[in-house]
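Re: that backbone. Tokens:
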């Protein structure tokens, strides 16, 4: 199968902007979409977004916003000043919080060249069914994810983050145009680290993922460019 490079998002899981920018420059011509998560954002602030945008790259701001509706609304308003292409909120914040997140994006949607996608995090790929039970959720992972995904769609979100194991169920429930972004990607199955529901890039796309997020498999590699090339092979 051929892979569209625009569907691969590289996670810049660093605390230092120099390491992050080095990866972006190393993968020039191969990857144009990068995820900024809590670690990098807290250490470097919004300026790292601006620096990567100046390199003509797309930004997936993955802060998993989860707070009272008005706080999330205002946080997204602030984030959108930095030309974010995609951002995350946590679906367990509830329907009203998700609606306020969508409202913030719609109010900002005045640029034809930038349509920010708002994506809801369902169940983290570091959790399995025992973990759900430990926090009082007596559902299978797939049923829990389906419930959250449908709520996200009904609130107006563009898609969700989920393990590739739940993609088919989400697409059947929410439609093929509802985006699914899949983390927990490992080049080799044995490399699970702290993730519990992992797949390879090929498996994720075959299951119907719209985007995959690849982090340590690339950024911790001795040769990140070679690793990216191996994905396409």
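Recovered sequence:
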């Amino acid at each position: 199968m051929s892979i569209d490079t625009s569907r691969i998002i590289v996670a810049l899981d660093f605390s230092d902007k120099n390491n992050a920018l080095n990866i972006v420059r190393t993968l020039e011509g191969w990857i144009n979409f990068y995820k900024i998560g809590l670690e990098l954002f807290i250490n470097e602030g919004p300026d790292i977004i601006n620096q990567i945008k100046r390199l003509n790259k797309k930004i997936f701001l993955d802060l998993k916003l989860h707070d009272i509706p008005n706080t999330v609304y205002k946080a997204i308003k602030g984030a959108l000043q930095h030309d974010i292409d995609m951002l995350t909120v946590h679906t367990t914040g509830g329907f009203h919080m998700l609606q306020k997140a969508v409202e913030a994006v719609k109010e900002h949607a005045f640029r034809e060249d930038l349509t920010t996608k708002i994506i809801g995090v369902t169940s983290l790929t570091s959790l399995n069914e025992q973990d759900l039970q430990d926090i009082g959720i007596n559902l299978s992972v797939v049923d829990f994810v389906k419930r959250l995904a449908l709520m996200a769609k009904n609130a107006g979100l563009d898609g969700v983050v989920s393990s590739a194991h739940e993609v088919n169920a989400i697409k059947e429930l929410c439609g093929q145009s509802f985006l699914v972004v899949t983390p927990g990607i490992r080049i080799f199955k044995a490399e699970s680290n702290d993730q519990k529901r992992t797949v390879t890039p090929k498996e994720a796309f075959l299951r119907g993922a719209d985007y995959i997020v690849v982090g340590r498999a690339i950024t911790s590699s001795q040769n990140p460019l070679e690793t990216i090339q191996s994905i396409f092979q």
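The CA atoms of residues 99 and 155 lie 5 Å apart. The chain has a mean pLDDT of 89.
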